[in-house]
Hints:
This protein is an alpha+beta fold. The chain has helices spanning 3-20, 22-42, 56-67, 89-104, 138-150, 161-195, 198-222, 232-260, 265-292, 300-321, 323-331, 341-350, 354-365, 367-382, 403-414, 430-446, 480-497, 510-544, 547-573, 578-581, 593-621, 626-656, 661-693; strands at 75-82, 109-112, 116-117, 123-130, 154-160, 390-391, 421-427, 458-460, 466-472, 504-508, 589-590. The strands form three sheets. Strands 1, 2, 3, 4 and 5 form a five-stranded antiparallel beta sheet that branches. A four-stranded antiparallel beta sheet has the order 8-9-7-10. The longest helix has 35 residues, at 161-195.
Amino acid sequence: MSTRSxxxxxxxxxARWSAIHPWKAILAWxxxxxxAAGLAVAVPxxxxxxxxYRLGESGRADAMVHEAGLDxxxxxxxxxxxxxxxxxxxxxxSAAAAITDGMKKVDGVTAVAEPQWSPDKSALLIxxxxxxxxxxxxxxxxxxxxxxxxxxxxxxxxxxxxxxxxAINDQxxxxxxxxxxxxxxxxxxxxxxxxxxxxxxxxxxxxAATSVAATMGLLAPLSHLVPSEPTVGSMIVLIGMxxxxxxxxxxxxxxREEREAGRSTLDAVEIxxxxxxxxxxxxxxxxxxxxxGLYLLTDVTFNSLATGAIMVVAVAxxxxxxxxxxxxxxxxxxxxxxxxxxxxxxxxxxxxxxIAGRVLAPVVRRPGVALLLxxxxxxxxxxxxxxxxxxxxxxxxxPDSIPEVQTYATISEKFPSEGTSLDxxxxxxxxxxxxxxxxxxxxxxxxxxxxxxxxxPITTSEDGGTAVLQLAMPYDESDxxxxxxxxxxxxxxxxxxxxxxxxxxxxxxxxxxxxxxxKKEQEKLPLVIGFVLLLTLLMMAVSFKSIPVxxxxxxxxxxxxxVAFGILTLVFQHGWFAGQLDFTSPGFVIDWIPLxxxxxxxxxxxxxxxxxLSRVREHLGRGLPAKLAVEQGVKDTAGVVTSxxxxxxxxxxxxxxxxxxxxxxxxxxxxxxxxxxxxxIRLVMLPAILVLMGDKAWWPSRPKRPRxxxxxxxxxxxxxx
Length: 721
């Protein structure tokens, strides 16, 4: 039995059993979801530790600091400035004294530093050091608020490790909550437009929601093998809703089509399993293969995201070939009830592929021209990606609406020692290490990249074996000159200062961690792209027994990725539509976004790509000429593809309206790329290429109709396209 026959047999046999024993299948699925969801309560999740994020030389520096006990404890900063006009220094010092006295009385405060004036005497800064594991900010903020109430002429603001993290987490939670509230009704509305019936519209949403719930629970025990990153929950919701709705949509549309042709419910479910069920297995495998490419980065965040995405796709595929056929068999024609009269009539009037047919007609008539024009558009959109700059998220990418972000930005501006800096960590002979660091500091200050810290720059551990030199830079962290400073320090200044000195040394700090991560991503990105494209190529070649189709699929996927990268560059690096999207361009794309967008885009776009190709192959197997098979196959699937893409575009577009820059970038990149992929690529480029290639597209063999398998003639399907 061929691989394709096996792939078709699995969903067909599973669906038949589920359709014959619907209550067993439904109850088994409910039990699976409840048990899986219960694991989240029964099994504590293993979260990622700070040590897991260490990378390269900056990771070694951080480990050395931690082992020497030189970790900086969490700290809060209180900034005192003038509310209007010139700062009253006497009032500022009085307020600083009140802040100091109040903070010393708060439990968890281990030290309060002497108030520090900014170089231009326009602001005063008080640093509060906190005990390890202290996470309470309520009393600290109360002190700041009380003192502010006593000094109307001053602005007294607080921002630090705890308050900033808390504010960011609150904003992320608020954004995600907003996205979830909006996405569910929008998805349901789109399903109502696609089906015109309430039950049919609710089934895809229900399957997607239960798949997400089950995956959330399964991830708890799995996190003890792959530590869970805080953002993985958002990934599961994002991917789970997209694929869960898509797979149900593919299956339900085909089952309805067969019933419209006069098949019995059981026959319709079985035919849908042999056709759409096969497409679901192949497209699910493509998504999993794409996500698996993230493991090549050997990064704790991407390992966690890949694991969550793979799990939710696998669960959604399982639900699509088990409980979905059972529900359809049990409901029968009731799946199209209750009908919404207006939407139902509009669907019947437009018919299957009505709008798509008008778009497709000139493409089939002039495939060469269509391919040329669409290729030009694709290239123009992708070219800006050649100049893409990436950098880790920082203060510039955080929303200005968060007060703590504004305070932190002011502190960085007025107090250089609180801004961008690098750390040189060394351990060995105490005298040699100290002499080397002092020499390094003197040479660094001669460079244009570094400036006087204003305080003692060297910190030594209690045993004297490890020391840290802090070097301040007059740049924002995203400034390209920071990279130049890091390279000068690592390549020239540090080797010269430590020539002949024993022990070990490393350059670290927040800016260096970002530098190391971007360098690693740049090195691994071609490998990840190659792996994802090669694996999907092999899957397509095996599934469709066609080398040209596999190659075409890979090239189109690469084009989709190029368009996504180009749009990200134009919008976020160059600031296109910044006003409409309500953000200020940071001048770069956040480093992890391109890779994330690529694997998600390749995986999700393969859903409807496989669905279209499968229908074209069916028509070829029925004996239709290649050109007619392409035209009929694209028309048959146009409504499903449109509905599936509309769901994904709508959900991702919601993220583009959120305040956090990472979510905004993810939303814009994915929604725009999927929109173009589902229209320009799958509705113009793919059919044009298949028509131009004719039967050669299916080399080495033209599809043949399998014996004993009945595939219906094209039949009316009522849907809004």
